[in-house]
Amino acid sequence: MTRTRTTRLRRPLLAGTTAVAAMAVTASLVAATAEPAKAATGPELSLIAATGSLTLTSWKEDPGVYLDLGTYLTADGRPLELKVTRKSYKDPVTITQTVYEGGKAKPRTLPKGTVKDFSGLPGFAEITVTDKAGKKVLTRTEDFCPNNASGRVRPDAPATSKYPESCPTNPFTLGSVWGVEKGWAANTYAGSYTEPVALAAGTYTAKVAVAKKYRDLFGIANKPATVKVTVVERSYEDDQGAAGAAA
Hints:
This protein is mostly beta strands. It has three helices and 14 strands.
């Protein structure tokens, strides 16, 4: 798989009498004790890599590569649904997650400061790149918009997602809904909201992990995705020369 620079991601297309008496007393005590309420549940979220290896292109005239590594967050059992709001332009942005208790949806308020605006979950993905010798050459974090480019990962998943595309950056936004549909996966790459990185031509290993605070918040397993990355250097003149030869 070869990737070049991209713009903002959009959607294309988890016994005896005594014993009997004792049992009767125990049964009556159990019956008299109210059953504990079942804990509210959300989706089972996982980080996956769509491919084990890919090629990124760095242009001589405009060096640097974007770390579109093909990693996705999947939602199983329930959709991941987040509602992000603020009462006014002067109030802070707050976020709730839709969870389910007894089959009914209810809001779960997430900690203050989880989000700072409507562009996504800050610092969600942690990326580490090592060279062929195993030396660390790059570390960075990227925000995650659950409304990123997404697609079904299960044949029994809904045919379409009910969630909108992209996360708004409009300064006048007062509310937004983010989500990953049940049985779907959303790209963790931040698209044009991220900056390119300087990597010389060569072979690397990229490890993508979900930041601990989000693993704890959403119950995501600590299982980073690993992708082999090959960086190639090209020139715009290469394409021009090929076009001229074809003509």
